[in-house]
Amino acid sequence: MAHISSPDQLRWSNRPRRAHKKQFVNHVSHRVNFGSLDGVRLLLRRLKWRVISRLVVGICASILATAPGWGSEFIAPWFKPNHALVIDAYEYNEIDWEKLSTNKRIAGYINKASDGLSPPYACSGAELEVKLCKALWKRHAVARELFQTRRMLAKSLGLKWGAYHLARPGNPIDQANNFIDFANPGPDDLMAIDIEDNDPKKWMSLEDAEEFVRHIQRRTGRFPVLYTNGSTAKHIADNRERYRLLSRLPLWYARYTDAIGVHFPLGYWRGYALWQFSSQANCNQHRCPYRIHGAPDDIDVNVAAVSVEALRTAWPYGNLIDVQPDRMASVPVPLTRAEADAGHLPLAYAPVEKARAAVALANAFEVGGNQYPLRAATSVGQGRTLIQAVEFYRTIAYYADFVAEKMGNLTRLARAQTVDDTITSSVHTEREKR
Fold first, then answer.
1. How far is CA 421 from CA 417, 418, 427, in A?
2. Is the model's pLDDT at 157 over the cut of 60?
3. Cβ neighbours of residue 319 under 8 Å, at least 6 residues apart?
4. Angle between helical axes of 172-183 and 127-156 (0-180°, round to 10)
5. Are the CB atoms for 180 and 216 separated by under 8 Å?
6. Interatomic CA distance for residues 394 and 397, integer angstroms
7. Quick one: which of 258, 346, 367, 379 has the fewest CB in 10 Å?
8. CB 154 within 8 A of CB 137
9. What is the C-alpha separation between 107 and 315, in angstroms, rounded?
């Protein structure tokens, strides 16, 4: 997602397109001599091959998108008219809602809500600090008013609504409260946490993000969607035992390329909920994967792996994704002879579960099919006490099995030693009789 953090960036983003076009013409004029016929021919030849190359790329992408086996959700799905689109924007993106509503593939609109921690309620300090504090409050108030206006307009046009929080370093509980107070999400509004990168110095750490997600679920009863890039998603997937919540959130995947099949599956993620494929990183005046009528080139465009109707049904993605059973610890279900002879039947597996009292105790804290022990507690401290109790019983069960196994081995050894001593004693007795 694009976020302007300095006045220089803001001035550059608002430059008129004529300035960019003038720079492009000046760049070409330095390399081509317009005063000669050969120079003009060279320019036309270059432009011709550029147009032809882009046309070929577009045709090939369209063929791949419609070809059997290739037209999946991992290869340029935005070329397929039956895939839904979702727009996400922040306060500096200009929107022409009348033009935007003409695109019937756009099913949802996600707007930036809160940004890190809320501004301080009281301004104090030096004169410059007070001016900066008041400016932040003014920006916060304007952004909140714009957010509410856009929500009203989007819903009046029949679009699904969503909001995301730009996660910064700082107290994750306070940021979660700031997001809920800012966005005031309804039961059908999508919520998302935006982790731009796995860099705790610039963005919220993944450990704090776990706390953020947990607190959002405590207050709203739903889980947010996780927005992040490819490297961070891979890190979470590779360490899914450490990030038990983040690794099971619906994935809002940011990757600006035509094909991402080589990157999936990632841990528990069999696919994406949304794929952000176009932004100011790869969309400009001369080239763009998909242009939205009524929105600037730097608008973020996302594609869903499903149709508009299916996306409306799945919205707002408030649950954790299901964990696939471990095939290495599962038993295949036998087939009858007739079914085996018929062929073309998928092999089904029966998951093997550990029959332990500690596992049953841990499952007692499941709420709505989701592993969420803190939901049963009335406070964070009690929740941690419950978790510690569950882990304690699991540890006791483990060591009980371990001790039982060792005691069994010792018993067998003792019995064998007793038998061996008996045999040895009998041999000595016989020898003495002789």
1. 6, 5, 10
2. yes
3. 222, 223, 368, 369, 370
4. 50
5. yes
6. 5
7. 346
8. no
9. 10
Residue 378: its pLDDT value, please?
A: 41
| pLDDT classification of 110: cutoffs 50, 70, 90 | very high
Judge contact between 175 and 117, C-beta under 8 A: yes
Q: What is the pLDDT of residues 328-356, one digit of tens each?
A: 555 667 777 777 777 666 666 666 554 45
CB-based contact 1:88 (threshold 8 Å):
yes
**Token representation of residue 109:** 């609109």
Token code pair at residue 20: 């960019």
103 has a pLDDT exceeding 80: yes
Six-digit token pair at 120? 């301080």
In the numeric block, which tokens belong to residue 314?
A: 């799945």
Residue-wise pLDDT for 247-290, tens only, equals 999 999 999 999 998 888 789 999 999 999 999 989 998 899 99
For the chain, what is the HEC assignment? CCCCCCHHHHHHHCCCHHHHHHHHHHHHHHHCCCCCHHHHHHHHHHHHHHHHHHHHHHHHHHHHHHCCCCCCCCECHHHCCCCCEEEEECCCCCCCHHHHCCCCCEEEEEEEEEECCCCCCCCCCCHHHHHHHHHHHHHHHHHHHHHHHHHHHHHHCCCEEEEEEECCCCCHHHHHHHHHHHHCCCCCCEEEEECCCCCCCCCCCHHHHHHHHHHHHHHHCCCCEEEEEHHHHHHHHHCCCCCCCHHHCCEEEECCCCECHHHCCECCECCCCEEEEECCCCCCCCCCCCCCCCCCCCCEEEEECCCHHHHHHHCCCCCCCCCCCCHHHEEECCCCHHHHHHCCCCCCEEECCCCCHHHHHHHCCCECCECCHHHHCCCHHHHHHHHHHHHHHHHHHHHHHHHHHHHHHHHHHHHHHHHHHHHHHHHHHHHHHC
